[in-house]
Design goal:
126 residues, single chain
Length: 126
């Protein structure tokens, strides 16, 4: 019985080897010529270049979007700067007015004024 079992196993191994060998010969491995390898390399290179160009475009778009966000944030600060400039201009105007009023007061103080003499007769003052 052992001999029959061993024979069956050997027969199955031989059949499987023939099947694998037959399958391998159905798809012959073609060796590529140098020109074919060069053409395939050019195609792969072009595909790689296109994919890298697309990645670069995507990165440039992402950078542009970030720049727009930063500019938008910066414009908000421009409003703040404008308000600050307005406040400074108003402060300067106020200081100018104060200087003008002070100068007028000094000029008025420097003038000599004649105080009218009071008369004892109220009829004359009317």
């Amino acid at each position: 019985m052992n001999i029959r079992l061993i024979g069956t196993i050997l027969l199955m191994c031989a059949a499987s080897m023939l099947t694998v060998n037959a399958h391998a010969t159905d798809k012959p491995h073609k060796k590529m010529t140098l020109s074919e390898k060069g053409e395939q390399a050019r195609i792969e290179s072009a595909e790689l270049e296109q994919s890298q160009l697309q990645k670069a475009r995507d990165a440039a778009n992402a950078t542009a979007e970030r720049e727009q966000k930063v500019l938008a944030k910066h414009e908000a600060n421009d409003w703040e700067a404008q308000q600050l400039e307005k406040a400074q201009a108003q402060s300067e105007q106020r200081l100018t007015r104060e200087q003008k009023y002070l100068q007028q007061a000094q000029e008025a103080a420097a003038q000599t004024r004649k105080i009218p003499k009071e008369t004892s007769d109220p009829a004359q003052s009317e």
